[in-house]
Amino acid sequence: MNSAGLSLEQAPPFSVPLRFFLTAPWFLALAALLLLWQGPEVFASRWLPATLTLTHLLTVGFMAQVMLGALLQMLPVVVGVVVPRPRLTAALIHIPLTLGALALAAAFLNGNPIWFQGALGLLGLGFGAALIAVHLALWRAPVVSGTVIALRCALGALMVTVGLGLSLGGFFGWGFTLPVVVVTHLHTAWGLVGWTTLLVAGVAYQVVPMFQITPPYPSAFVRGFAPLMAVLLAAWSALAFGGWEMAARLTGAVLALGVALFAVTTLRLLTQRRRKIGDPTLAYWRTSMASLLTGALLWLLTPWSQTLARAPQVEWLLGILPIFGFAVAVINGMLYKIVPFLAWFHLQAQLLGRAKVPTMKQLLPDAAIRRQFWVYLAALLLLLAAAVHPPVFTYPAALALGGTGVWLGVNLMGVWWIYRRVLQDGLAVAPVTDNEVMRG
Amino acid sequence: MTTIAEFLANEHRGCDESFAAAEEAAQTDDPAHCRATFQRFRAAMEHHFQKEETMLFPAFEQVTGNAMGPTRVMRLEHQQMRETFAEMDGALANGDLEEFLGQAETLLILMQQHNIKEEQILYPMCDRLLGAAVDSVIQAMRDLPAGGPP
Question: Is there a contact between B69 and A77 if contact means CB atoms under 8 Å apart?
């Protein structure tokens, strides 16, 4: 076995993941502005340009942004492989992804093919760079753990999602002929079930037992869940594309059950946590998994119930629950662990022996996290209410969405601000110690 | 047959338990109990570090011929955790449980990302690379007496 490529270094410079984490929250604020501007009409159909804009501000602007930034940070820890040229790689992903998300929003809103072409080029570049960098690392993993398996499946699903998304963009930008409705369904399923759920699962196998001090996920689940879901997703896609409706419906039901099983398993582990002190990010995990479970059950039941299948609100709930309820919550919660820890870690490494490094709780107080969570929860409930009754709840939902996004952004910027101040002060005053020479 | 991965991951879980106990005591504002549980936790961690640093890592380094690779990073992280233990000890000495809890939060992440690297990557590699020597390395770690200076 080759151990030469193995590196357990606490990898990339702080700026590599941080740029993604500091950019993402402002896409939540943009989504809120869009909702304020468009008003209750947005909820008339999921196919409206404004609705598609809203969805992609959340999925590309917020979710993909943080997920890819976090992967660059986590790969050395969970896989043991560093991403080469981290600063360049991060720039090649972050800049096109951010501009591409904005261009795509503009393209949906003005419908101009030129904008779609520009958005496609940028997103193709950003996602392409991310897929290549992360794939190279994942296939060089020295030990194939359950997490590595899940990450590989998630990355495969991202490739499919992006491929389908680019061809849909080609429909708008260059007039490609393709069955838009089916391809959109596939694009959504691969993005939410394949990429997002499997990535969160792969990460959860590690972070739930470790940081909440719970029993581990069952080992058969850890090794089997992601590959099984990926195979089912592929089968479901083929059946849906081929028009075998009943078979596709049954496969879809099994997929929904799989998603529900992951949510239930995680919720059960969280009830068995042995870390007795309160942890403000726990509420995020619970909300996330409860939303995932509710969404999965709704998805499971809808094809079999005429009432649900005919209700236009159901499509909306099936978007809000997995995107804002599940993904945004778990990402928001994890950012509160990752960003203060990395700030502490990099301060510690650079200032050792020169100045006292603030603790994670000093970098970001629990109270700030708790309060922002309540605004997040209000935004989730109001968005769900707005889907059911748009005239009353759309504007309050938009305000709460903007509130939670801006507050998250401010909390994270606050950590960065303290980091810079402590680093500057520390480097300015005290002499270099032996310890630092040893580390440097 | 026990593997290195099982044997040492089990020790991690034991340390997690005593970490949670110390943290809980700090939260309930019980300095004496917190001091006792923290000392127990710190001693268990130190004993575990010693087993790795004096038995496992040298065996790994001998087989791979590489003392500057993964084991060097693991030793550095042990050192970082020892420094955080000292900070926590200082906070307890000053009766500052708030500071203790802040350090504990940081330590938990530091400790767990270290454990993930060991359990996911390093231990399975040790099991494979050491082959027949696994049993004797585990026995040597079992026999290592507790205590001694860090």
Answer: no
CATH label of the domain that carries residue B90: 1.20.120.520
In a domain, B38, yes or no: yes
Chain A interface, best mutation among B41, B106, B111, B114, by max A CB count within 10 A = B106
In 3-state terms, what secondary structure has residue B36? helix
The pLDDT tens digits of the residues spanning A289-311 come to: 999 999 999 999 998 888 888 88
The range of the structural domain enclosing residue A52 comes to: 16-143
CB A78 within 8 A of CB A147: yes
* Residue range A112-133, pLDDT digits in tens: 999 999 999 999 999 999 999 9
Please tell me the distance from the alpha carbon of residue A427 to that of residue A92, in angstroms, as a whole number.
30
Q: How many structural domains are present in chain B?
A: 1
Burial class (CB in 10 A: 0-12, 13-18, 19+), A327: buried
Using the Cβ of A7 and the Cβ atoms of chain B, whether some distance falls under 8 Å is answered with: yes
Q: Distance, in angstroms, between B73 CA and closest chain A CA?
A: 6
Q: Which of A81, A143, A206, A434 to mutate to test the interface with B (most CBs of B within 10 A)?
A: A143
Question: Which residue is it, tokens 């003005």?
Answer: A110
Residue B13 counted as domain residue = yes
CB of A219 within 8 Å of a chain B CB? The answer is no
Q: How far is B81 from chain A (nearest CA, A)?
A: 11
- Decide: A351 and A427 in contact? Cβ < 8 Å: yes
Asked, for residue A83, whether it belongs to a domain, the answer is: yes
User: How many domains are there within chain A?
Assistant: 1
Task: Please give the DSSP secondary-structure letter assigned to residue B69.
Answer: S
- Structural domain includes residue A36: yes
Domain membership of residue A120 (yes or no) is: yes
Q: What is the pLDDT of residue A439?
A: 44
Residues of chain B contacting residue A213, judged by C-beta atoms under 8 Å apart: 16-17, 19-20
Is there a domain that residue A96 lies in? yes
Domain range for residue B32? 4-143
Determine whether A440 is exposed, middle or buried from the number of CB atoms within 10 Å of its CB (0-12, 13-18, 19+): exposed
Helix (H) or strand (E) holding A343: helix A329-351
* Residue A327, token pair as written in the block: 């993904």
pTM greater than 0.80:
yes
Pick among A9, A222, A359 to test the B interface (most B CBs inside 10 A): A359
pLDDT reported for residue A431: 57
Does residue B148 lie in a domain region?
no
Closest of A165, A201, A158 to residue A68, by C-alpha: A158
What span, in angstroms and rounded, lies between the C-alpha atoms of A208 and A214?
7
A435 contact B CB<8A: no
Listed in sequence order, the DSSP H helices in B3-52 are 4-27, 31-51
Q: Is the CB of B110 less than 8 angstroms away from the CB of A341?
A: yes
Residue of A nearest to B29 (CA): A277
